Amino acid sequence: MTLLPPAPTRSSAKPVKPALVNAPEGADPGVVSWVASIAELTEPKDIVWADGTPEEYQRLVDIMLEAGTIVPVPARPNSYLARSNPDDVARMESRTFICAEDSDDAGPTNNWRDPESMRQVLGGLFDGAMRGRTMFVIPFSMGVVGGPISKLGIEITDSPYVVASMHAMTRVGTAALEAMHGTKDWVPAVHSIGAPLAEGEQDVPWPFNSTRYISHFPETREIWSFGSAYGGNALLAKKCFALRIASVQARDEGWLAEHMLLLRMRHEDGRVMHLAGAFPSACGKTNLAMLQPTIPGWKVETLGDDIVWMRPGDDGRLWAINPENGFFGVAPGTSEKTNATAMAMMTHDTMFTNVALTADGDVWWEGMTKEAPEGLTDWQGRPYDPANGPAAHPNARFTVRAEQAPSIAPDWEEAVPLDAIIFGGRRPTQVPLVMQARDWEHGVYIGSTVSSQQTAAAEGTVGDIRRDPFAMLPFCGYNMGDYFSHWIDMGHRLGRHAPKIFSVNWFRRDEDGGFLWPGFGENARVLEWIAGRVAGTAEGVDTAIGVMPATGALNLEGLELDQETLNELFEVRPKPWLSELVDVEAFFGQFGHSLPTGLVRQLNHVRWRLEHMQQTQLQAQAVPA
Ligand code: GTP
Ligand code: SPV
Ligand code: MN
């Protein structure tokens, strides 16, 4: 990695005093001079190097309590509620940029900016941006420090909320800093809320700037984020590094960085399956990762809920880790019924953001209980009035360390060999409950054509259906046409060791808008069929769009689901599917020459099968009874 000088500094810049940089003894000189250069640009009042200790966490909490950024949640030990500014509540995809030298390397689905002109813009914005504030330097490791699939980074930020969140989400501290000694292989990430404080100026509880730039420089592996303190905009280790920059590193180094959950499903008779699953934001990864099976014999162990890094091992198999250290999960919809594991892990040491507060000092959000309790305070700190909208923001979140999940696998920090990969989205029609790809290339086709209803995780109109290939549309740091090719190449490399690929859809609806499938713990039935397909014991039937469970192959015991609903869950109607392919073709078209021919072949094959189905008036052959 070459560390280019940061965006042009002011000509009047004074060198930063070594005392201000305040570097821990033994810090790599390259690290120290980079930190000094950022301090010179942003002019903080002081610099604190994060060590990741509980004492430091407590200091951050005290700072935030004092500033009014957080309030205690008395019903839960060591838990707090942060209320963000209503203009800073989700990822901002329209302000997320890939600054590759060549716009072709960003591709048609990313916002491209010329690196040089972006450096000019950032140079202006970051100039003096931290005046009057403390600059925190957060050395961190994604994956265990020194692990074979792990990577190092440093985030600089002026937001204590970001530092506290990074404590939970990554491995912060001295060990990571020491691992950077003598290497340039770490990702520099600079974040500022962009709200300098003048001498004597009173701060606000959630300072931010409505000018936003979440900028990535894939060639130099740099991240610069300005304006927002929320989630993926500001916790730069997460989407910015572990997906956008890491996907570029993965392309160059022969591995995969994906927006996926990771779980182990274990039967008491000894059967074990490792599964990774890509679903767009707020489409069920955390819930599936913590699933409590409703069918006897099975148990799910959580390995990760949002990001997976995968590398072929010496044995030819694909090995996976969760590079994160905690969960930044969607609160609304989480309840004892839907995700008892998540409820249990949030009983203490949790940072909540934008949830409601009850009269007796506990948190609440839509879906936690049927009725809203009396005397609620909404996420903006007002007495709850339904006329103002929901009590909790739809993208309200909880932040906890992974170790707090009762379902966490005892060996969750180690790599596991993958057996299956699933793709899913929110599709009210069309897409069946589950199907298997005929082979790897067909699986890549399925991944590349994932589409889903928009959720509140990013700005945009909730409910609009959009293509979100591999659930990576907002997170791929390079041209997605090249990304599809990289996936196809990975299949050639893995050969017979490649994980099996599936598509799932928990969100198909009936005519009245209700979900056809009960979801949550019942999804274990689908995972059981997938495990059976991997083991070669479960029956499947080939249909025009993929392999579906044969009659009787899906375990429906104890589930009250009538035949009509079941038929609907698996129904394949050629006409709407053929019109969907028109949309897929248009989507593929924008990639031009970078689209791998394998995907065109797959598209034509599916179309041919659907046309044949239409001509022969065949109904979907595979409807499990
Ligand atoms: P990000 O953290 O944004 O990447 O989201 P995620 O993919 O981890 O989604 P999460 O598991 O947090 O679920 C988001 C919403 O979908 C929550 O409100 C869940 O209650 C709901 N959900 C999850 N699984 C199911 C399911 O099987 N059926 C239904 N109907 N809803 C589900
Ligand atoms: C997502 O939007 O996919 C998230 C939340 O996991 S954030 O960290 O804000 O990106
Ligand atoms: Mn996510």
What does this structure look like?
The protein is of the alpha/beta class. Strands 1, 4, 5, 6, 7, 8, 9, 10 and 11 form a 9-stranded mixed beta sheet that branches. A 6-stranded mixed beta sheet has the order 15-13-14-24-28-25, with helices on both faces. Strand 13 (about 260-265) and strand 14 (about 270-280) form a beta hairpin. It binds guanosine-5'-triphosphate (GTP), sulfopyruvate (SPV) and manganese (II) ion (MN). The site of manganese (II) ion (MN) has 3 residues, from loops.
Note the main attributes of this structure.
single chain; about 625 residues; alpha/beta; 9-stranded mixed sheet; 6-stranded mixed sheet; disordered N terminus; binds guanosine-5'-triphosphate; binds sulfopyruvate; binds manganese (II) ion
DSSP strand tally: 30
Radius of gyration: 24 Å
Bulk shape = globular
Distance between the termini: 56 Å
**Count of alpha and pi helical runs:** 16
Small molecules bound in the structure, each named once:
guanosine-5'-triphosphate, sulfopyruvate, manganese (II) ion
What share of residues is helical?
A: 25-40%
Query: What's the overall average pLDDT, rounded?
Result: 95
> What is the beta-strand fraction?
15-25%
Structural class: alpha/beta
> Uncertain regions: pLDDT < 50 for 5+ in a row?
1-5, 7-11
Largest sheet: 9 strands, mixed
